[in-house]
Amino acid sequence: MSDSFNLRTLEESLKSVPSQDLKDIKTHIYGRSDDHELSISSSAQRIAESNNFVIKTYGFKAKKEDLRKPRIVRIGAVQTSIAAPTTAPVSVQRDAIFAKVGKIIEAAAADNVNVLCLQELWTLPYVFCTREKYPWCEFAENAKTGAGVTFLKGYAKKFNMVIVCPILERDEDQGDIIWNTAVVISNTGNIIGKHRKNHIPRVGDFNESTYYYEGNTGHPVFETQFGKIAMNICYGRHHPQNWMMFGLNGAEIVFNPSAEIGGSLSDRMWFIEGRNAAVANSYFTVTINRVGTEIFQNEFTSADGKPAHKDMGPFYGSAYLAAPDGTRSPGMPRDRDGLLICEVDLNMCRQERDLHTFRMCQRLPLYAEGLTKACKLDFEPQVIRENENLKRNQRQHTNDHQF
Amino acid sequence: MSDSFNLRTLEESLKSVPSQDLKDIKTHIYGRSDDHELSISSSAQRIAESNNFVIKTYGFKAKKEDLRKPRIVRIGAVQTSIAAPTTAPVSVQRDAIFAKVGKIIEAAAADNVNVLCLQELWTLPYVFCTREKYPWCEFAENAKTGAGVTFLKGYAKKFNMVIVCPILERDEDQGDIIWNTAVVISNTGNIIGKHRKNHIPRVGDFNESTYYYEGNTGHPVFETQFGKIAMNICYGRHHPQNWMMFGLNGAEIVFNPSAEIGGSLSDRMWFIEGRNAAVANSYFTVTINRVGTEIFQNEFTSADGKPAHKDMGPFYGSAYLAAPDGTRSPGMPRDRDGLLICEVDLNMCRQERDLHTFRMCQRLPLYAEGLTKACKLDFEPQVIRENENLKRNQRQHTNDHQF
């Protein structure tokens, strides 16, 4: 799959396409051919230029209703590279990324973002490729009093902005263990709550199960002044049942803070899974990745037959927002720090639910029963065979022959 | 969304794109930039040309294993328009579509297709837009002895081909009621079993709930000589939990016979949902639609504010196959009868399952419990609020103000 390992965005590739073809291709890729960019304030633009990051915007519209006023929300997503070498002291690395992200939040505030989400583990490099515990475990922080959370609480209050803060969590009350967690900070500056990553990868450089377990917080939805939000952290993106439970709990916006490298399965599926989830659950999804290549001091291997090396290759950015009607924003750059701002009307969620009735015809009891059976040790899959003779033949066939 | 109502395929739009850009765009769209067309036999090509349908092919490769031989299967998907006017007698319409499909099956046999699936309700027009019961209910047939099933049994045995036959079923043993059903015919010519559509649409022209209920056959997987197959019929494509249960029951290929019109949500999501399901469940998916515009004698309305009319607009074809590694075949034409032939190695399913461990980290007990709670009448969503004061403020806010 090395051919997909590319730092150009799709939007750059599309620049050469003649206009009629472009319209068709865009319809295919975004679910619509028209563009609705928002204006960017000059102060936000100035902050972006002087701090070398990109701002992209997109607007989604819902139908006008009589009884409900529009529920317009500006959603922000931040993608960054690390800001200091991985060989610098932990405190230096952390201060550097704080400074960088602080500037991006200022730009978000200048453009009136209401709800902002940072990338997964935004305060640290993606260190799990190393399988080393130190100094990396030092980045883990208390979900109420830690440095990253405390840093963002100030911004949340100052800018009247809900901020989702994905951290490496240290649970000091329960054996000092570590979790992959996202904390929701209210626009009042108070913490509303937290969610711990439900699905943990075990592939390639993603040695997360060496550091923490599957989360124990269920599928919480956080009621904020700007809508009901939830976080499906990283690998949960591949699990439709995880998206589904956030929907059943009433989410209107589900963030997917992630860390993903180019040329991978995730790269192929990046723009698929967020859109699929938005439609299946009639809510908005925001899929966020980091950017840049992170080089470590000690070499490591990736279980792919290749020689040891000191980096995972570039993370591909590409943050985007998908709407319940199947349309999506363009993707952010694959190699630059950036802020995506999308304006949505949350009324679209219920409008789509009424139109396509996915929730009504979802048949939850059927699946509650099916999954309950499927996780029993004596589960027998519902398999229908032509007859027992054929069954024996097939077994032999499967073992012995090519077909 | 009228801008997406277009009969050109994406592949036609891509013809104008310069080669480097084309590579990037194809990587985005198909999950790979290389092409693996299979050769088409001259006899199949001859049948296609003289009967005015298109054959497209694509090959997918899996890793070589030591203990398992490759499990190469040729999968076929058929898309057709109706073959006689909807005003012709039922028997004439049926004989005409039988003759057309017979020729396509002959071509499939000439190119060694092992498992073939026809589109949803292949023996009849998509009549539910009319909400009329007669003559349309006459197309319903017994799932063991009906005309469509009987017609295909002969071909299945003659060509050593498993054929999936989606029909309008008449259950004469249980009150003559009607179902939307797919019957699996073994390559021996015997019927292995049937599955009834699980999720029924209630939107626009898709008045299916006027004719039949949600299926009562669970999520069966059919063990055939060419792999374990299942059918997620039409609207179940939008329901990830439906795809998931077929995976839990062991499916390696899941067909999605459908009937979908252009410019719709389904058009926007067509190439998204099949790929998403293939990756999430580590199996192959085959998404199939009919083509052509079907004109009825009596006018009907579509609940979209537009005047009464006599057709739903064109069905957009676009059959394709998606693999568990996130790649997919090109789409079939949007406006022509066609046969898609894909060669796959079923070993890819387990290989992807081992690599990405989606099944292992799926956490079924968590979701069995979550869905069991969610379908209770006294279900309380897992919602976390900042505090009760804020909660009251928010309620007021939601009712009274724009935010």
UniProtKB/TrEMBL annotation, chains A, B:
**Single annotated GO MF:** beta-ureidopropionase activity
Q: What is one Pfam family matched by this protein?
A: CN_hydrolase
Enzymatic reactions: 3-(carbamoylamino)-2-methylpropanoate + H2O + 2 H(+) = (R)-3-amino-2-methylpropanoate + NH4(+) + CO2; 3-(carbamoylamino)propanoate + H2O + 2 H(+) = beta-alanine + NH4(+) + CO2
Q: Name one GO biological process term.
A: beta-alanine biosynthetic process via 3-ureidopropionate
Listed A to Z, the keywords are:
Hydrolase
**Which pathway does the record list?**
Amino-acid biosynthesis; beta-alanine biosynthesis
What Enzyme Commission number does this protein have? 3.5.1.6
InterPro entries, per database record: Aliph_Amidase/BUP (IPR050345), C-N_Hydrolase (IPR003010), C-N_Hydrolase_sf (IPR036526)
What are the residue boundaries of the CN hydrolase domain, all occurrences included? 73-346
Gene3D superfamilies with a match to the protein in the record: Carbon-nitrogen hydrolase (3.60.110.10)
Q: Which family does it belong to?
A: Belongs to the carbon-nitrogen hydrolase superfamily. BUP family.
Name this polypeptide is given: Beta-ureidopropionase
Instruction: Name its species.
Output: Clunio marinus
